[in-house]
């Protein structure tokens, strides 16, 4: 089983973001980056599938600036076999431009499965995986939270609003991974040592001109919250009054 | 003049509320240029009966494709048909919903057309040659104004941002054939497991009552369920801590890795307000927080807060809401 996992480093969300001088990018000074959670679950899924098959290869691919190599290295320390870094000064916002560059790399790879995280919390589009599937003409299931692979076919569960779909698909296929499928392992010390010797190839990404661009960034106004109506059940009548007369939601 | 395409999402033979929201958003765009709204509705035979609702919300034309292969969501056949219609119809823009189905479908269609896509749009406007889209990034802490150059421009609308507006149009029905054989898709829905009937989903509920660790145990969610029942139009959500502990299913999780919701009223019960949770609900119109810790971060985003014991306050609130809603 040969599996590719496409990953992204994303900023720590637990900070107050600052907009850079150009008004259209974020000031990344002092911002910490790490592997996207959804991508970590995709890496874990790949490792488990390889372990279950008893053989195979897990190749981790990331497009972005040179720091992407650190993130790839982290997945190698989790157990992935090798990495491919597609160099780009910035990760474009246009998911189609990213998908086109990834598809060009993945095309001749002979992968049985290509995995993505469902979404990255920074650009918040969640479109690269299914776009790559279309560009490669492969079957695709998105937001997978349950997965079985056997005899060249797969069954996947996806969560809908108030329902679940059980999907069937043939391999090779592209899947995007949701929370709930697994818990990602931490790199062991042995894994970290081993990762240093694993191959990590770096080459320029082939990026077309984006048709989708960020023109401007704004920080949303802070919610003017912080109004304590009262303490205990005694405050309930006043809350009801405010919900009826002020917020008009009751 | 620019015509706008709207994908009218259906499931199990019924239109989703987001279908009406998508048509409403498309109507607004079309009206800004004097164009028409053409909606696409796919489903099992019988789905054509739902076209009238789309006309009622502003569709000039409803393209209907009925096929047994569309009994369940059929991603490959739906994408092939939508891409074909958008590509051949000369549309300026095409809108989808940022629902589970729309998140799956829209990028497939965009890639088939060889164009970009912006999801989770909180507004869409035409400005000369561009479609201008507001799109929250970094878990809603930053709002991006995104321009899509080129035609057609594809975007999907965040649920609950375009309230369905009645705006009756002709809704001329056009029967359209599937592209290829929908029964021959490689990816198939083998089974759809519906949640409890009549239970409102988080994406569609005007009121959400969410519970956190402050409820202390899974069984204590009954006070949250009862408050939701008192509203009658409420869904129940949870924090990641609670779903990770298995008190509630993952599908109930509101937050960065879970559901993004923006109901009219959000009541946070025993939720401290971690960044990961706030990411999923900060766009709610009115937020109420009930928590024993007066310094909990949730009170900073809440419009109204009550400090104290949730096991005392929530039942009292349930009784008061029941009283206030008498006659509804």
Which features characterize this protein?
heterodimer, A: 13 strands, 26% helix, globular, B: 328 residues, alpha/beta, Rossmann fold, 2 domains, seven-stranded parallel sheet, five-stranded parallel sheet, 18 strands, 27% helix, 28% strand
List the helices and strands and how they pair.
The complex is a heterodimer of chains A (250) and B (328).
Chain A: E1 2-7, E2 9-11, E3 33-35, H1 37-53, E4 57-64, H2 68-78, E5 82-87, H3 95-106, E6 113-117, H4 128-136, E7 140-150, E8 153-160, E9 163-170, E10 173-177, H5 189-195, E11 200-204, E12 212-218, E13 228-231, H6 236-245
Helix pairs in contact in A: 2-5, 3-4
Chain B: E1 4-7, E2 10-11, E3 14-15, H1 17-31, E4 37-43, H2 51-56, E5 61-66, H3 75-88, E6 93-97, H4 100-113, E7 117-121, E8 123-127, E9 130-137, E10 142-148, E11 153-157, E12 172-175, E13 188-194, E14 207-211, H5 222-231, E15 234-238, H6 240-244, E16 265-269, H7 275-281, E17 286-291, H8 298-301, E18 304-307, H9 310-324
Parallel strand pairs in B: 1-4, 1-6, 4-5, 5-12, 6-11, 7-11, 14-15, 14-16, 16-17, 17-18
Antiparallel strand pairs in B: 2-3, 8-9, 9-10
Helix pairs in contact in B: 3-4, 5-9
């Amino acid at each position: 089983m040969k599996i590719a996992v496409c990953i992204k480093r994303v900023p720590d969300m637990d900070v107050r973001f600052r907009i850079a001088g150009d008004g259209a990018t974020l000031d990344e000074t002092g911002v910490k980056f790490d592997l996207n959670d959804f991508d970590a679950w995709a890496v874990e899924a790949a490792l488990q599938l390889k372990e279950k098959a008893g053989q195979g290869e897990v190749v981790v691919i990331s497009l972005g600036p040179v720091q992407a190599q650190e993130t790839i290295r982290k997945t190698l320390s989790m157990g992935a076999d090798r990495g491919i870094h597609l160099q780009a000064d910035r990760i474009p916002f246009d998911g189609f431009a990213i998908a086109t560059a990834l598809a060009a790399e993945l095309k001749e790879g002979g992968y049985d499965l290509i995995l993505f995280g469902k979404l990255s919390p920074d650009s918040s589009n969640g479109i690269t995986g299914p776009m790559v599937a279309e560009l490669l003409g492969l079957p695709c299931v998105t937001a997978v939270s349950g997965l079985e692979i056997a005899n060249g076919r797969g069954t996947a569960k996806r969560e809908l609003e108030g329902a679940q779909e059980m999907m069937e698909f043939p391999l090779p296929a592209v899947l995007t991974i949701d929370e709930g499928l697994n818990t990602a392992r931490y790199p062991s010390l042995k894994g970290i040592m081993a990762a240093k010797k694993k191959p990590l190839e770096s080459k320029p990404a082939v990026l077309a001109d984006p048709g989708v661009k960020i023109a401007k960034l704004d920080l949303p106004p802070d919610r003017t919250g912080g109004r304590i109506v009262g303490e205990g059940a005694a405050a309930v009548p006043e809350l009801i009054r405010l919900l009826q007369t002020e917020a008009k939601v009751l | 003049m620019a015509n706008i395409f709207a994908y009218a999402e259906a499931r199990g033979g019924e239109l989703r509320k987001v279908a009406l929201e998508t048509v409403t958003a498309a109507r607004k765009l079309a009206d800004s240029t004097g164009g028409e709204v053409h909606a696409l509705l796919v489903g099992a035979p019988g789905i054509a009966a739902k076209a009238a609702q789309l006309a009622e919300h502003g569709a000039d034309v409803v393209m209907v494709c009925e096929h047994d292969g569309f009994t369940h969501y059929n991603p490959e056949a739906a994408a092939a048909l939508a891409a074909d219609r958008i590509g051949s119809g000369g549309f300026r823009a095409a809108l989808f919903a940022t629902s589970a189905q729309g998140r799956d479908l829209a990028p497939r269609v965009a890639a088939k057309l060889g164009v970009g896509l912006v999801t989770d749009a909180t507004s869409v406007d035409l400005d000369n040659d561009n479609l201008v889209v507001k799109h929250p990034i970094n878990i809603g802490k930053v709002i991006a104004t995104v321009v899509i150059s080129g035609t057609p421009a594809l975007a999907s609308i965040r649920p609950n941002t375009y309230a369905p507006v009645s705006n009756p149009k002709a809704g001329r029905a056009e029967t359209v054939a599937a592209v290829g054989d929908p029964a021959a898709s490689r990816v198939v829905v083998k089974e759809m497991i519906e949640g409890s009937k009549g239970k409102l989903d988080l994406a569609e509920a005007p009121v959400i009552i969410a519970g956190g660790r402050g409820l202390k145990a899974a069984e204590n969610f009954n006070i949250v369920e009862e408050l939701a029942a008192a509203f009658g139009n409420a869904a129940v959500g949870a924090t990641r801590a609670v779903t990770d502990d298995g008190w509630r299913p993952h599908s109930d999780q509101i937050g960065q890795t879970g559901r993004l919701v923006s109901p009219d009223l959000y009541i946070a019960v025993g939720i401290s307000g971690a960044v990961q949770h706030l990411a999923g609900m900060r766009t709610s119109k009115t937020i109420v927080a009930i928590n024993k810790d007066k310094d909990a971060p949730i009170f900073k985003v809440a419009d109204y807060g009550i400090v104290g014991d949730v096991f005392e306050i929530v039942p009292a609130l349930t009784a008061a809401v029941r009283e206030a809603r008498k006659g509804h």
